[in-house]
Amino acid sequence: KMAAAAGAAAGLWSEVNRCGQNGDFARALKSVNKILQINKDDVTALQCKVVCLIQNGNFKEALGVINTHAKVLTSDVIAFEKAYCEYRLNRIESALKTIQSASQQTDKLKELYGQVLYRLERYDDCLAAYRDLIRNSQDEYEEERKTNLSAVVAAQSTWEKVVPEDLGLREATYELCYNSACALIGQGKLNEAMKKLQKAEELCRQSLSEDSDVTEEDIEAELAIIHGQMAYIMQLQGRTEDALQLYNQIIKLKPTDVGLLAVIANNIITINKDQNVFDSKKKVKLTNAEGVEHKLSKKQLQAIEFNKALLAMYTNQADQCRKLSASLQSQSPEHLLPVLIQAAQLCREKQHAKAVGLLQDFADQHPASAAEIKLTMAQLKIAQGSVTKACMILRSIEELQHKPGMVSALVTMYSHEEDIDSAIEVFTQAIQWYQQHQASQTRGPKSPVHLSLIREAANFKLKHGRKKEAISDLEELWKQNPKDVHTLAQLISAYSLVDPEKAKVLSKHLPSSDTMSLKVDVDALENSHGATYVRKKAAKLTGDNQQKEQGQGEVKKKKKKKKGKLPKNYDPKVTPDPERWLPMRERSYYRGRKKGKKKDQVGKGTQGSTTTGSELDASRTASSPPTSPRPGSGAAVSAASNVIPPRHQKPAGAPATKKKQQQKKKKGAKSGW
User: Which sequence ranges form a coiled-coil region, renumbered to this chain (predicted)?
Assistant: First the structure.
């Protein structure tokens, strides 16, 4: 029996070997299971079973076999397979521990170690690991290692803002070109990055077109990630329409990479902002796909969560927005954006005071972010109309007091509030900061920013009539540049009110009129299109022309106003009704309506009214039948359409000749009954 079992086992091992060479691991697994039925603790058979399960993608089952037979399959025997299963099951920390606990670091474990470090975003350690692998390995996988090395450098440039060193890699493949482009994007070199991506696209097409089995759809699917990065560059450059078009083209291809789809969907949401929110809500579903969290970096996932919270705010889902922002704040307590989202939501709910309090609490707890928080608080105060309080908040940001942008904003707001003294104080403090800073650095000429602030301060003081205060600034400017005639003229103008004698002395420094060659054509300047005053040249008039001009003047004097148009039925013999402009109900001779007749007629007012009692008298119109029509009949409509407006009606005593003519015409008309 033992001999028969041994013979059967030998045959099964031959089957396992043959299936392994052919890549048929499903059949090999069946043979291995039969061997294990003969000897359940056969180490080689167990190892083969784990390998077959891994090749078939059954990582969880393979890890179960390893853990079940832990006494037989020690870490020395199967460390790589265990770590690989944990890596593929996204148990990255466990994989790292398994690798580090192995007694011998084989080349396979080192390769996996580099992958694990990349997933853990430990880029410095990962870079060192791949450098060691490239230096100490010589096989057919050198190109793949260089690609991984360039990916690490690109990640450092993108997420850690580290300036990448030149690795001297020959960009012969589209993967290397793509990674190089990503590193350039991280440095902000967008135009160079776009050129690299175009080169990567060209190399990719060349590489894949050589394979006859690859279709155009396969090539487009492979190019999707390159096109996605191109669209991202377009978005950064402000070409949002082009970026959006390219993003949508990629989505239509339905790529299998859930990470790529999630990034594209997130970028479309950022383009939509508070517009097209229904499209954004559809795109959010792509970011929630299974496995996305294992495909993207922590910062990418964080950005997606931030955008979800903002989208909830834009779609008026206040509770959802608060829930998401609170979750983000608990995950990253030092991050500013969740607090800003919460403050924005409170402002949408008109709770500005609560929003300011929230921001103030965060600024007290995180002094490093105080400047950004205070800028936001100032903006909220301005939105509330509290400009003075906003200025106080801005002036409390000491590290920004000397910045030209801050000085300009404060001066503008103080000017709006007509607080000129505070505005001048802002200029003074900024100038003093530059003086102290320059004194500690060097005693050379003043910096351009310093001189610009002095000039702006002088111009501001002169504009608001503070010429005495502007003198010291102007003297400092003139001292720095004695050839500046404009500054000298301003200085003389200021001194003319304070010290006329000093103004006379300074005026001697002005250049003489002889040395100033302006070469200005005064007549051309006055007659130019933009001139506010044009001098009219007095032309001599001959006798005939003078008479002609005088004659025209007389004609102009004789012109009279045009007569107003009179009504067609106007009769100069009849005195117009003095009450013709009043509504009928307000006239003195209005008798009111008879009770019980035509109750359905409104007849009030003049403008927008229906028809009055007298207007419904069909006998007054040429097109009506002799008898009174029924209400709502065609005759009634035509009668109403021919009614003379009230202001054109004849007075009670007008001749009735026209009425007789109308009655003669109505003899042939049909009756309204």
Answer: 92-147
